[in-house]
Amino acid sequence: MLRMRIRTHITAAIAALLTLTSASIATAQDPIRIGEVNSYTGPLASFTVPYRNGWELAVEQINAKGGVLGRKLEVISRDDGAKPADAVKFAEELVRREKVDLIAGTFLSHIGLAVADFAARNKVLFVAAEPLSDAIVWAKGNDYTFRLRPSTYMQAAMLAEEAAKLPAKRWATVAPNYEYGQSAVKAFQDVLKGLRPDVEFVGQQWPALFKLDAGATVQALAQAKPDAIFNVTFSTDLAKLVREGQLRGLFKDRQVVSLLTGEPEYLDPLKGEAPEGWIVTGYPWQGIEDAAHKAFLDAYSKRFNDYPRAGSIVGYNTILTIAAMLEKAGSTDTGAMVAAMKNLELDTPFGPITYRALDHQSTMGAYVGRTAKVDGKGVMVDFRYANGADYLPDDATVRKLRPAK
Amino acid sequence: MSFIVVQAITGLASAASLFLIAVGLSIVFGVTRVVNFAHGSLYMLGAYLAFSFTAAFGDTFFGYLAAILLAAVVVGGLGAVMETSLLRRIYRAPELFQLLATFGVVLVVQDLTRMIWGADDLFAPRMPGLDGAINIFGHAVPEYDLFLIATAFVVLGGLWLLFRHTRFGVLVRAATEDREMVAALGIDQRWLFTGAFILGAALAGLGGALQIPRQAASLSMDLNIIVDAFVVVVVGGMGSIMGAFVAAVLISELLAFGVVIFPQITLVLIFAVMAVTLVLKPSGLFGRPEFTTQEDRRNPDPPLRAGDGLSRIFWWGLLVAGVAAPLVIGDFAIIVLTEIAILALFAASLHFLLWGGGLITFGHAAYFGLGAYGSGLAVFHLSLGMAPALLLAPLAGAAGALLFGWFCVRLSGIYMAMLTLAFAQIAWSAAFQWGGFTGGDNGILGVWPSDWASDPFVFYYLAFAVCAAVIWGLRHTVFSPFGYTLRATRDSALRSAAIGVDVTRHRWLAFTLAGAAAGVAGGFFAFAKGSVFPEVLFVSTSVDGLVMVLLGGVQSLAGPILGAIALTEIETELTRLTDLWQLCLGILIILLVVVLPHGLAGLSAFMRRRQP
Predict the structure, then answer these.
(1) Domain that holds residue B127
(2) Are residues B583 and B498 both part of a single domain?
(3) Which of A35, A301, B238, B526 has its CA 20 to 30 A from that of A13?
(4) pLDDT (tens digit, 9 = 90+) per residue, B571-590?
(5) pLDDT at A339 over 70
């Protein structure tokens, strides 16, 4: 206790000194500080850099219009190198040293969960931008965490709805062997079985993440003789699966339903070998006609001389969310901000979204369509926007999934 | 039946890729005794270069082939640069130092590749002429797979000719057998080492280049392949070409059929093979028993003195600084300091094994991670409070070390290092894939300190007190009769055994002790972060520990602590400043190894020697 007091005195003295030199008390002119953590280096950089562009664009646009509550937005960003322990360390740093008003970001599910737990512990608002895990808002949901992107469950449910319309009865699944893959397969199976009790799942492959042994896995899938395949692999695993599967005729006369594959992040690297006719969730940026999206697309292309990826829109919407929330809350007090997040409604390039008070999940949706090749490149065609609100379980189920604390 | 044949062919194609990368690693190790962590980076560069070359002139079969071969040649040239500019300077440094330097290269190459080619995965076109599949027993088998298998046999045959029928090959084999003798016969070693390294690098480049028709070139290729390549080399026997081939086939076929029979546990399978091999035949399938690098070291370290004036000032200074610092620094700095205290203990426990016992471990993360999981699971499953959960941490670490150690201490040198790695990776796979018990990759959340210790200030003093006490205990052990005996077994196992010391038992005890200490650190780490994830068990945690020990200096008890301080501060500040922090850290590590081969602590010895 004595040490505490000594420390308090010294800290106070230093603080006083600082105050004399540079007024550090928040004034109307000081920016609102948003702490941001994501995995900007390492193998995930190709997904997080478009995301960073997205939020940078939103910050610039909002500040050009004078900011929020008469104050500019300032994002202080940190790279966690895809390590959860470092993500927590930088969350600590942002909150304690940088004195940010709230935190946002994260891509990998487990890092999102670690930061969400940190936020609850330290009573800081956390806007989880990209992590997909259902646990963030359900099993491990907490009062201070809100999630933007449509979850694993929502996207799997969108695809299961389409899958139910197919004649296929025998299904095989291939998914990376970690939580994301497991919960995607489970959600898909549950929803599809609910819609079509006659389907059966005849084969499952669980390659280790980014270590897919493509030839062997494709052979094993073919061996199960399914009518259709549900795929959850992505990135380098997806590329291997597609090439090997096409060579070995796995996809011939079989329907494939594939999670996230329509996102440019995953579809574009496949170039001329992009699969055709797969039913996917994704982001067909070339084809969305809405005025709001057109404006975003133009601004983004002009600013970065590049087209947006799914991550870009998530980054952009994250900042829009924060700005709308601040307008509604009227202050940067955490209690007011958390209250404002509940039932927050805002317009995004994907149309209006709402943050549900029930489970803190936004109703941002995704596009569902089929892949096709146009000019030697993979694109999504025949797509429609699936509103996230329509693909969540009913309220009673959600209450059961999200234990009240 | 037809399925089995086709699956076997598929396995053989994977084996071909694995063989090409592993055989280069094996040759380099055989001649230079350097465990080249950057071998995976050379493989990755081969893939990226081949991608660019095929884009330029890969439209025809021969153009594509030329692109692949050119990539291999360029990577061989890069290998020459790496050998002459870096490795040549550190052949005399301790083995682990060389490992650290090559790890620095990994970081540098990773960032440079990202700067040159960007972060997106790059998918090359298929090989013209081999872009279809042929029908074997009603199954489509890619033509390229057959080409790959043929290539592997061509390389195997080529190497056989090279090693049997050329002077260079004979010298390489001689050097693998006994390099002092080769030197004594008047062979220019520098030329031989450079040649072997170029060959190994070119094979890695070839392996990478040959992958591009099968998979996209990506930034995760380097670390993804290197651990598998280590496994193949170790299972086959270090330095053995045939061994690398047989092991690659064995492992790939196991995986090919493994995905059919147990699709969920493929991660564990490969390490289980390595562990079983090393337990049954410690030098690998085709390897010879360990050469004499560890036994009877010719220049044992000077006897340790129980602390002269300067070192006493250092230790007291450190203690005072540790106690006083939180009074003047900010909240976040306290959190960083807590992490430093915890990692210092982790590094000190590793150092105790490395230096005190001469036991080289690549898998120390296992015991750190078991400590963290011990605490985390106690909170999660048993709802224990912080204090009892922390008490479980050393028990978990010790239990793991007791079990794994029993196997590991029977080996020595690089084989021991690899077996410890295998066990750590098995522990990691189990934590990762056994979701029901460990929470899988989503980890265990909510492992926060009890209310009385929730203030970072209080938690720091708790962690500092315990970690300092355990470090003091380890230091005390080094000067106890047990510690002296242990160092005797390090300097000469043979002579120690001759005077009646039970070498294995002493090593086993030391292993367990270090495991318990690492477990303590792991337990505190869990509570400092509020969560436990499989990452704590991963090879990168072991590497972090090694970097700390080697950065600080192996030959001093202060080394691990200085290393923990330096690495944590560098990482925390660098990542704030720049996206290129891996590049900066890599260059820093390489410079340190070249300029300061005795680490930061060596700096003081260096200065002391200069004093009149």
Answers:
(1) 2-280
(2) yes
(3) A35
(4) 888 887 888 888 988 998 88
(5) yes
